[in-house]
From TrEMBL:
<dbReference type="InterPro" id="IPR020846">
    <property type="entry name" value="MFS_dom"/>
</dbReference>
<feature type="transmembrane region" description="Helical">
    <location>
        <begin position="167"/>
        <end position="189"/>
    </location>
</feature>
<protein>
    <submittedName>
        <fullName>EmrB/QacA subfamily drug resistance transporter</fullName>
    </submittedName>
</protein>
<keyword id="KW-0812">Transmembrane</keyword>
<feature type="domain" description="Major facilitator superfamily (MFS) profile">
    <location>
        <begin position="14"/>
        <end position="469"/>
    </location>
</feature>
<keyword id="KW-0472">Membrane</keyword>
<feature type="transmembrane region" description="Helical">
    <location>
        <begin position="142"/>
        <end position="161"/>
    </location>
</feature>
<feature type="transmembrane region" description="Helical">
    <location>
        <begin position="227"/>
        <end position="249"/>
    </location>
</feature>
<dbReference type="InterPro" id="IPR011701">
    <property type="entry name" value="MFS"/>
</dbReference>
<feature type="transmembrane region" description="Helical">
    <location>
        <begin position="397"/>
        <end position="421"/>
    </location>
</feature>
<feature type="transmembrane region" description="Helical">
    <location>
        <begin position="49"/>
        <end position="68"/>
    </location>
</feature>
<feature type="transmembrane region" description="Helical">
    <location>
        <begin position="445"/>
        <end position="465"/>
    </location>
</feature>
<dbReference type="Pfam" id="PF07690">
    <property type="entry name" value="MFS_1"/>
</dbReference>
<feature type="transmembrane region" description="Helical">
    <location>
        <begin position="336"/>
        <end position="352"/>
    </location>
</feature>
<dbReference type="GO" id="GO:0005886">
    <property type="term" value="C:plasma membrane"/>
</dbReference>
<feature type="transmembrane region" description="Helical">
    <location>
        <begin position="306"/>
        <end position="324"/>
    </location>
</feature>
<keyword id="KW-1133">Transmembrane helix</keyword>
């Protein structure tokens, strides 16, 4: 039965609210980066303590995504979204009001809890809101744009707000946005009863996986400080793996698992999550490295660095919002995904050749445009493939899994590439290489490594995912019935 214009407008407004929730969560991963020196000076953070302004958020966000996704299936995804948005908004106000380092770090952790609860269920809600293939492709394209561009926009917003007002307002700005989003979400999103705790309240499993993810992310984000071969990294890494192994064993034996292992029988779900891990590992690292390259090698200021990353977000916006849906329909999601991954790899390879006396327009911009173009078409195709194997009962879980893999991949990729760049630069400096050339050499190695990672993702997509379907009916049936 065709929907009325009013019903269509309501769904589009609901999509906008869901995307706003995603944008707030993604922005707050990077919005503080440019403001860290001001926060340190104002609150008296030590250099080591300052890292926890970022890490506290990441650990809570990544650690609770999977649990939040399953709770959304059990309690109702709308209820989970509203709860998470409320927690995030209140915590944002507390971050802005923070008067000591301890208060800010604690508020950032709570903010991460709210971000996890909000983000984990969004993709599942979009799948339910837009059951028709073409509409779903467009909706996922919009969601992909928000996720992909959020990091770049966060860097830009953090620099502009900090310079124009103060660091407090990078958090205060979330409060009115969060209140409006809450009011609209309460009105526009359709309530869902949820499966109830009797269908999956695996408390021991929830404790195990949350602990495993939090310890794992903590280990990753502290690698740069301790090194990969240190007792700290190896010890906590082993603990994270042990907790994860215990969780998997628990899921295989319990009657009501938190993460039913059956979801991994789907090639679409499993393959898309592995490819997502590789792609996001490269892209998160690219954003971090490029900001440092612009600041440390080319001498860009905070504001100019933010503006320099805007073309990536703009190209992602144009392609994910307008071109990804027709491309997926015309050529199939797998083919679009492979082509997009190849384009991303080409952009990273170009960055691996940028000289120390580079000009932005000639040396960096072409690579940034390739990265935006590739990511803008690859991510919507990947998300559609990843959700195609999810049943209605497991949509929140698979959405949470997808977001969890994204956060873990981003944290691991950023830490790994940062360590590679640092070690290479140190080795070149010890050989007598000038500082700028040594820094550039480290960045080049990291860029080439990221390109190789994305190439491996493209090969995996070509070999493992099933031949490109033009939004096949069986996948749609599984997703909505």
């Amino acid at each position: 039965m065709p929907r009325t214009p009013t019903a269509n407008r309501s769904r589009l407004l609901a999509l906008a609210v869901l995307c706003a929730g995603t944008l707030m969560a993604i922005l707050d991963e990077t919005v503080v980066n440019v403001a860290l020196p001001s926060i340190q000076q104002d609150l008296g953070f030590t250099q080591t303590g300052l890292a926890w302004v970022v890490n506290a958020y990441l650990i809570a966000f990544a650690g609770l995504l999977l649990l939040s996704g399953r709770l959304g299936d059990l309690l109702g995804r709308k209820r989970m979204f509203l709860t998470g948005l409320t927690v995030f908004t209140v915590a944002s106000a507390l971050c802005g009001l923070a008067w000591t380092p301890e208060v800010l770090v604690a508020a950032r952790f709570v903010q991460g809890v709210g971000a996890a609860a909000t983000s984990a269920v969004i993709l599942g809600m979009i799948v339910t809101l837009f059951p028709e293939p073409k509409e779903r492709a467009k909706a996922i394209g919009a969601f992909s744009f928000v996720q992909a561009s959020g990091g770049s926009l966060g860097t830009l917003a953090g620099g502009l707000i900090t310079e124009a007002v103060s660091w407090h307002w990078i958090f205060f700005v979330n409060v009115p946005i969060g209140i409006v989003a809450l009011l609209l979400a309460a009105r526009l999103l359709t309530p869902e009863a949820g499966l109830g705790f009797g269908r999956g309240a695996d408390v021991p499993g929830a404790v195990l996986v949350t602990a495993a993810l939090m310890v794992g992310v903590y280990t990753i984000v502290r690698v740069e400080a301790h090194g990969w071969g240190s007792a700290h990294t190896l010890g906590f890494g082993a603990l994270a793996l042990a907790l994860l192994a215990a969780f998997v064993l628990r899921q295989a034996r319990t009657a009501n698992p938190l993460l039913p292992l059956r979801v991994f029988r789907s090639r679409a779900v499993t393959g898309a999550n592995v490819i997502l891990f590789l792609l996001v590992a490269a892209m998160f690292g690219f954003m971090f490295l490029t900001v440092l390259f612009l600041r440390q090698v080319l001498g860009f200021g905070a504001r100019d660095t933010g503006f320099a990353m805007v073309p990536v977000a703009l190209v992602i916006a144009v392609l994910s919002l307008s071109a990804s849906a027709p491309l997926n329909t015309r050529f199939g999601q797998r083919r679009v995904l492979v082509a997009g991954l190849g384009t991303v790899a080409a952009g990273l390879a170009l960055l691996g050749r940028v000289p120390v006396d580079a000009t932005y327009a000639l040396d960096l911009l072409p690579a940034l445009l390739l990265l935006g173009a590739g990511f803008g078409v690859a991510m919507p195709a990947l998300m559609a493939l990843g959700m195609s194997g999810a049943t209605t009962a497991d949509a929140g879980l698979v959405s949470g899994l997808f977001n969890t893999v994204q956060q873990i991949g981003g944290a691991l990729g950023l830490s790994t590439l940062a360590v590679l760049a640092t070690e290479r630069s140190r080795a070149l400096t010890e050989r007598g290489t000038e500082t700028a050339h040594a820094l550039a050499g480290g960045f080049h190695l990291a860029y080439w490594t990221a390109a190789a990672v994305v190439v491996s993702a493209a090969v995996l997509a070509a070999l493992v995912l099933r031949p490109g379907r033009r939004t096949a009916a069986p996948a749609r049936t599984r997703a909505v019935h």
